[in-house]
Amino acid sequence: MKAPEYFNETATEYFHFVVEELKNIDKLNPTDKPIIEALSFNLATLEDCQKRLFQEGFVVGALHGMKEHPAVSISMKAQAKVLESFKLLGLDASSRFKEEQVKTEDLSNDPLLNVLAGRAI
After folding, report:
1. Which of 7, 76, 89, 92 has the greatest number of C-beta atoms within 10 Å?
2. Who has greater pLDDT, 74 or 101?
3. Cα(12)–Cα(95) distance, rounded to whole angstroms?
4. What is the pLDDT of residues 27-84, one digit of tens each?
5. What is the pLDDT of residue 115?
6. How many domains does the chain divide into?
7. Which residues sit opposite 25 in a β-bridge?
8. Same domain for 83 and 108?
9. Which InterPro entries match (predicted)?
10. Could you tell me which residues are beta bridge partners of residue 72?
11. Same domain, yes or no: 62 and 109
């Protein structure tokens, strides 16, 4: 899977990282490419906003006094989209927990494993 050509270096790195992680857990699906692209874009956006906020501060001077830096709301929206993409790809903590539960239940139903563990069949 290849990152879009218009991605900057940061977004491309995130794209390759997400693809590699999905490969490692055997969840890479070609139909998820738009979600992976959106996730990579939002991770890069979030990183850029955080850098900008640490350099410029969380408030800026305005016509009628100080106001919240625009990067604050942009980063909050990007973070919400990142979490949404994690859920869609099954990378969030609750999805991983559910998978662990299913694996544990599957193992406990295996008669051979029950005998080996010393449990009654």
Report:
1. 89
2. 74
3. 25
4. 999 999 999 999 999 999 999 999 999 999 999 988 889 999 999 999 999 999 999 9
5. 67
6. 2
7. none
8. no
9. Phage_term_ssu_P27 (IPR006448)
10. none
11. no
Does one domain contain both 73 and 51?
A: yes
pTM given for the model: 0.78
Query: Domain range spanning residue 112?
Result: 93-121
Is residue 72 domain-shared with residue 107, that is, in the same domain?
A: no
User: Does 112 have pLDDT greater than 80?
Assistant: no
According to DSSP, residue 120 is labeled -
* 102 falls within a domain: yes
Same structural domain for residues 79 and 22?
yes
Angle 9-11-70 (CA atoms, 0-180°, nearest 5)? 110
Tokens of 16: 């390759």
pLDDT of residue 62: 82
Is residue 4, in this structure, part of any structural domain at all? no
